[in-house]
Design a protein that fits this description.
The protein has about 190 residues and is α+β, with helices and mostly antiparallel strands. The protein has two domains: about 15-50; about 60-175, Rieske [2Fe-2S] iron-sulphur domain (Rieske Iron-sulfur Protein), CATH 2.102.10. It contains one helix and nine strands; from the N terminus they run αβββββββββ. A six-stranded antiparallel β-sheet has the order 1-9-8-4-3-2, with no helix packed on it. Strands 5-6-7 form a three-stranded antiparallel β-sheet, with no helix packed on it.
Amino acid sequence: MVGPVERMEEPERPQESARRDFVKKAGSIVISGLAGAIPTCAALTVFLDPLQRKGQRRDFVHVASLDSLPSDGTPRQFSVIADRTDAWNKSPRVPIGAVYLRKTEANQVIALNVVCPHAGCFVEYSSAQKAFSCPCHNSRFALDGTIADRKSPSPRALDALEVEIRNQSEIWVKFQNFIAGHAQKIPVS
């Protein structure tokens, strides 16, 4: 009598084992890559978002009071203090620039950016000459900001800024800087 026949399984071939291991490893790499890519993409989006935003729109900033300006039309320089936001940083109430303010005969106020349009130096006011001059390259500007000397290297007049008088005594200026060296006023973004 013959006993029960045991069925012997065939040993796995090394080629099939290697193929199965490859498929397992490749599948785990793809799944791990997808699992890691999702949070990485989300983090990059959050990190790079400030670089995608347009420059901050500048509103009017309170600079001075009408009482602080001489009635004879002599310009006075004032710092412009406002909140500054750039990319990831927000700094409250910091100096962002400076302006010359001048009261005219019609009791209006003229605001001129203190930056020379030629190369970006700060202009100075000379009360003896009743004019502005740039110490860097000798650009000269009249009291109203126009170019006073034909030899002046500045490509344009001093940059006039919008002004509002609020509450009959507060001077508000829409402050912005412009790119130096150009004949047109191109705002710095």
